[in-house]
Amino acid sequence: MVSFPMPVIEARALTKVYRTGLLRRTRRALDGLNMSVEAGEIFALVGPNGAGKTTFVKLALGLLFPTSGEVLLNGRPPTEPAARASVGFLPERFSVPGYLKAEQVLRFFGELSGLRGRALQQRIDEVLEWVGLSEERRTPVKAFSRGMLQRLGLAQALLHDPDLLILDEPTGGLDPIARHEFRTLIQRLSEAGKTIFLNTHLIDEVARMAHRVAILNRGRLVRVGTVAELLQDETDLEAVIVRLLNHHADTL
Fold it and tell me: Which of 36, 118, 167, 251 would suit a FRET pair with 158, their CA atoms being 20 to 30 Å apart?
């Protein structure tokens, strides 16, 4: 019997319903989502505001619990420590106290990951070199540009050498040069065998980097495929996604 590799992230009929307001009205943020992310790919989740992207990320990280269905990381629920140990996470706005130096920030996060002593120091040196911040290791974070702060955030996500990186709007708010630098880092991570999950609204980034793209709208999966499959005979990925989203909205 042929065996297939287990998905790194897998959503099975994943549903999340919120109850809000005094009347406890329901809002279905995710509605029976089935989706999988394979090892070694750069996978992008795109969609309009309110599509359910952030809810999915929180469910995948174990920060929220599904109303029904499930999401698995390497076949395990994200609430299990072994599942979380394989994940590095960069939030949309990585933020730490400005008086801390870059090295202190990484030491704090490294200790949270269970690293200690010489092994931690060696790993700090490696990730600072990798993201190009070795010379700023003793610089207070308050002196960092937005791009430098994002690179520091990526460094903390890499400290425990995870197989999977979940990056939430990683290049949002960056200038073109910083965006190019960060995109290069992501591509290098992919070449090193990491699985990259991008939650983003920047279609240009998706077209440049993603191996596969999932389009989400109103909690439902509209389409998933490679960039080439989505484009087919067209050249403007943003126009294709807008057309698919509009068609999906019209059929609801």
Answer: 36
Alpha carbon distances (Å) from 83 to 9, 71, 211: 10, 11, 24
- What tokens does 178 get? 């910083």
CA 226 centroid distance within chain: 18
Alpha-carbon span 96 to 75, nearest angstrom: 32
147 φ/ψ angles, rounded to the nearest 5 degrees: -65, -40
Q: What pLDDT, in 10s, does the model give residues 177-187?
A: 988 898 999 99
Q: Is residue 236 classed as helix, strand or coil in its secondary structure? A: coil
Rounded Cα distance, 79 and 224, in Å = 26
E strand residue ranges, 101-252: 164-168, 195-199, 212-217, 220-226
Interatomic CA distance for residues 155 and 149, integer angstroms: 10
The answer to whether 85 touches 112, Cβ cutoff 8 Å, is no
Q: Are 8 and 196 in contact (CB under 8 A)?
A: no
Neighbours of 180 (CB within 10 A): 13
| pLDDT tens-digit readout, 72-96 | 999 999 999 999 899 999 998 889 9
Tokens of 71: 């999401």
Candidates 130, 124, 79; CA nearest to 106 is 124
88-161: CATH topology: Rossmann fold (3.40.50)
